[in-house]
Structure formats: C-alpha cells, structure tokens
UniProtKB/TrEMBL annotation, chain A:
It comes from Nothobranchius furzeri (Turquoise killifish). This is Immediate early response 2b. Residues 49-147 are annotated as: Disordered. Belongs to the IER family. InterPro entries: IER. PANTHER family: IMMEDIATE EARLY RESPONSE GENE. It holds the Pfam family IER.
TrEMBL record, chain B:
Keywords: Repeat, WD repeat. One of its GO terms (molecular function) is protein phosphatase regulator activity. This is Serine/threonine-protein phosphatase 2A 55 kDa regulatory subunit B. GO terms for cellular component: protein phosphatase type 2A complex. Signal peptide: none annotated.
Amino acid sequence: MDVNVEAKRILAVSISKLYASRTQRGGLRLHRSLLLSLVMRSARDIYHSSRESEAPIAAAPEEPMDTSSRAEEQTQLPEPESEPQPVANGAEAASEVSDSREEESDGETTEDKENVSPTRQSRKRRGKASAAPDFLPSKRARLEPGEERYAAPLGSCRTMAGESLTTLSLNRVIPAF
Amino acid sequence: MLAGSGGDMQWCFSQVKGAIDDDVAEADIISTVEFNHTGELLATGDKGGRVVIFQQEIENKNYPQLRSEYNVYSTFQSHEPEFDYLKSLEIEEKINKIRWLPQKNAAQFLLSTNDKTIKLWKISERDRRADGYNLKEEDGRYKDPNSITSLRVPVLIPMDLMVEASPRRVFANAHTYHINSVSVNSDHETYLSADDLRINLWNLEITDRSFNIVDIKPANMEELTEVITASEFHPNQCNTFVFSSSKGTIRLCDMRASALCDKHSKLFEEPENPSNRSFFSEIISSISDVKFSHNGQYMMTRDYLSVKIWDLKMENRPVETYQVHEYLRSKLCSLYENDCIFDKFECCWNGNDSVVMTGSYNNFFRMFDREHRRDVTLEASRENSKPLQVLKPRKVCTGGKRKKDEISVDSLDFNKKILHTAWHPLDNIIAVATTNNLYIFQDKLTG
C-alpha cells in the first residue's frame, strides 16, 4: 500500500534525523525534536494501522529517548482505529488520537536532565532495559535482518503475539536507508 | 518621504555586502538583520557570533538618485562559543536576534543574543582625544617626575573617527532552552527574552535577575505538545505582548492581569483546512515569526507556506492570508528529507504597514501590497547587481508549459534561502540577507 510505504520511509528518515541531531552543535533543539516526533507519530500510526489489518499487533516501536509509557498508551488505542484508511483520513485519525490522549514528545532531551523526576524512574522502563530501542545503534551486537528480538516480559504490555513481527519488519526498514 | 506603494513600485539594486565566493564559510552565514529606529543604522549578526553595523552616509549630492549608501560603521565579536560543562553541551555563538534600543543620547545601544545569553552593547563614537598630559610623553611613556617643571591642562584635539562597541550588560543564566526572541518594551526600560518554553522580563539595568512571565513547561516533559517560537512586545502598549507557538497559535497577554501570564487574554487561531491534512501539517503550521504592525492594530505571522495578517480585535481567523510559495505544498516530503521544511522564515512590515515582505527559496523574496492587493516575487542575485538596476519580477511555473523567463519548481535552488529581511522604518529601502550576502534595494525614485 502506497501510504504504508510512505509511512515507513518517513519513519526511517525521521529516526535518522533524530539520531543525527544528537551530534549537532548546540545540542538537541527542543522545537525540532518535537516536530520530528509529531511526524514520526503520524507515520507510525499509519504504519501500524495498516499492519494491524494483517496481524493483531498492538505494540509500538520504542522511539529514541522515550519511555515505554508511550508504548503502553499506544496499546490502549481502541481497535476500530486500526482500520487501514487513505492517507488523509489515516493521518487525521492519528492526529485525533494523539490529540485526545496526553501527548508525549521527544522533547525530553539531554538538556533536561535536571528535570527528570523520580517518578520517571519507576515507570516500566526497567522491563525494557534489556531490550534496547530497535532503530538506534546499540552497544550490543546488531540485529541482522531475519533475526528476532525477544523483549523481556516483565509486566510490559508489549508481550503480545505479533510483536516480533513488528520489530522484524521495522528492523528491515532501517538497513534500507 | 515614504510614498504610498501606489502603482507599480519598482525596486532597484543598491548595494551588496559580503564575500563573492561560492564557497560559503559557515561563520559568515547571516542569522539576523535589523534596522534601527531611524533607519540610519543597519545591523547584521552571523553564525560566527559577529555583529556588523552599517551606517547610511550623508546623501551624495552629486548622485541624488542613489540615495545614501550604507557603509561599515562598526564590527565586533558579540558572542563566543561556550561550553556547558554540566550538560556537556556546546553553546553556539550564532547571533539569533538583534534589537536596537531607541536612542537616548549620543551613543547607540543594541541587544544581541545567542541561544543562552543576551548582551547589551553600547556603540559610541570617539572623534577627539586628550593631548598634553603632564605625566606622560606623546607615545605614552611616563616622564621622569623630576623633569616636570610646570603644569598644564590637557586639551581635546580632533582625531579620526573611531567607533567603539563595548558590552555594557550581560544577561546570562536565565534560559534553560534556546532563546528565539528578544523584544524591547515601549517603556524603554524593560525587555523580554523568550526560549522554547519560557519568557522572561528584564530590566535593562539589572542583570542578576529577571521575572518569568510565561512558562509553558509541563510538569511532565513527556506531555509536551507545543513550544514557543517567537515573542514580541506591543509597539505602544507596554503591558501587552504576544507569543506564537509551534501549533500555529498566537497568544496575546496582558501583564497587568497577573504576574505569570500563562493564561492568555486572547488566543488567535485559525481552524485547519481538513483537505490540506498530511504527515507534515503540524510542521508547516508552526509559526516562525510574529511581528506587530507599526500602528499596533495588526500583527503578522509567518508559517512555512504563508503569511497571515491578524486584526488584534479578531481571534478566530486572520483578516488576510498570503501564499508565499504554495507550489511547495506537494513537495513537503522532499522538503522534509532535505530539512528545508524546518527553515524559519521571518517577515516584516514597511513603515506605514501597507506592504509586507518575506523570503523564500532560490534567493527569491516576496512582497504583498495590502492596499492594492498585489504581490511580487523578486530575486537577490549578483547577476542583477548593476547600480540602480531595476529588479525584474520573477515567476515560478507550477505546472504545464513553462513560459519564457519562468522557473520551474524543480529547478529552484533550495540551498539559496532568504530567511531574514528588514524594511527601513521611514523609507523604501530594504535589506535582504541571502546565505552570506546582504543585499540593499531601494525603490526607484521618480522625477
């Protein structure tokens, strides 16, 4: 599906931009990071709404510098929204959804270390700690396309059946770029 | 002096400043342009942290049609690169904004800011020096006290004009995020500085404290949905200011209402056209600049594709909308990939608020005549840089057959962008900054 391809491409481009902006002089720009994350969210929602029509996946890829709480909220999306739709409607639905729930953003930047509240540590990040974000180069060995990643199932909402399919296909997206 | 823009105003090349090289040194990239309140001085800031001030010379009697030329008056290093050791972050020296203070005495004052620190600079002229010291020789060496047999009063003698810039105040450590705006209040005593999430109010005399007047930082940063993109004081109501957001809204605040102006007095927002929805709708609705009209009745906002004029008395929609380069709407994906979609264009009013101007790509800039409902696209290029050469209007071909002299959208050079423009407050002289060159154009004087 055209929309799906475009969504995947935009997602990959966004992630590489987000990653590149880490090395920018002057540090991460909050405004730019926010805009990137908004585009990524739309693209990701489109992508997943079309994936969900194939397999019941509710997991969302973890975005850089994000906590798993975003993924949790993603999984709470009502199923009807996962119908594949033309771009305009899909993007609109995605934005409506994102408007209706409390938004998070990649605005949590390295600039803001002093504002990290204690509660943030108690979120379910621990469960994800062993599963590094899919798209960022991690300090561990890279996944080869075809490999599957197994998330630590510590009360995380991501232990749904199709998760490995999602991570698998998105891992393929990145090497394409 | 400022004629109405009646009829077809023609613009002529006047001057261009900057290197001719195609190879642009990053430090030379112009990051801000601002006329002072009389238009006699024109300041530019660049990525290397330097400020260059041009002064309009006294009119050339031999060539009255040339009007007056702008020549370098003062150059100084305003900001240096710094390092924040706590966060392991480099602080860029790039000058984000320059704002002139209204002149109070012989010296000129301006505020210049980078991402974190605002500085008040005094620019003063020195054309005399003291001569006839009792204790010192001409060359500065101290005399042998025993050789001094009489006293005299030193006299001031003329010398070559020297323009000195000295930092009078440094306003530091008040912004966690990147400063995007400064604006001097009409009370001439205070000014505001805005970063992504907060706006601070300063007294020009006091550097060790500022008042926080807007704070949109959510308790949980993960709930962040919008940032402040620009802010400005009202030109004559010292209690009123506006700030624009990345969501395309503008909030007008009254400082008399409360100490913290988080609750706006007015919220200006236009509902989005649902047929224009795309992946990039949020990015292109982000407002990159907001400017009050000189008469204080209107304000203008610039988003990626358009310029909007708002009546301060009407919040639900702008009174005028001008498309800057609507042909880019179908190219947003490519513009996202090459980062151009993040470009922050500024906009400006002419002296009597009848015409507005903003930049575009391919070194094009656009003027919208509000009175006569006319718009024109002009180009800043060295090819049209013969003295008083009249600029030919340019046209972008959006589809179908390309006419002669038109340029097709795919041929536009997106590396050549005009982000910063300024209009002389009292005359039809404009300053247009390309990447590293400053063009000065004037309207064709008739008769």
